[in-house]
Specification:
By secondary structure, the protein is of the alpha/beta class. Helix content is about 30%, strand content about 25%.
């Protein structure tokens, strides 16, 4: 499925690290939402991505945005990853890869022959449920453009 800026964001419900269901529909009632899909917990680039976001969480909050991270890791793995990196935002498990498919964010094949791994992707969903920003990276070694994301968030308010 192709996702594009301006279209309605696909809704989802996933479990966080406390095994609580989190839905996009509920999140957008409160704020804009930044969705960060990442391939694997505990890998160097993924750790850099979530820690960079952690270090700037007050900026996202000031821009009226809730940040969530999504990967195909289990909620138990993500709980340890969240704890070790002291992340102040939810990590959600898309273990069955259903949400990543909706957001066109699965690698056909990643290094070492892994298939069905979440692409490094970033989306901004406004409070009306529209996609305002979409960045889907084919190279898992790259990071999304955090500066561009903040610029888009400034225009969402």
């Amino acid at each position: 499925m192709s996702v594009e800026v301006g279209q309605q964001a696909p809704d989802f419900i996933l479990y966080n690290t406390e095994l609580k269901q989190i839905s996009l529909k509920e999140l957008i009632k409160k704020s804009n939402v930044v969705i960060l899909f990442f391939p694997f917990a505990f890998t160097s680039v993924c750790t850099t991505e979530v820690c960079s976001t952690r270090d700037e969480i007050s900026i996202y909050e000031d821009l009226n945005a809730t940040v969530i991270g999504i990967s195909v890791d289990s909620p138990f793995c993500l709980a340890k990853f969240r704890e070790e990196n002291q992340l102040p935002f939810d990590l959600l498990s898309d273990f069955n890869k259903e949400v990543a498919r909706k957001y066109d964010s699965l690698y056909d094949e990643l290094s070492l022959g892994f298939t069905g791994v979440t692409k490094r992707s970033a989306f901004i969903i406004d409070k009306q449920g529209h996609i305002k920003y979409a960045e889907i990276l084919e190279d898992s070694g790259l990071l999304p453009s955090f500066d561009k994301m903040k610029e888009v968030l400034q225009n969402c308010n």
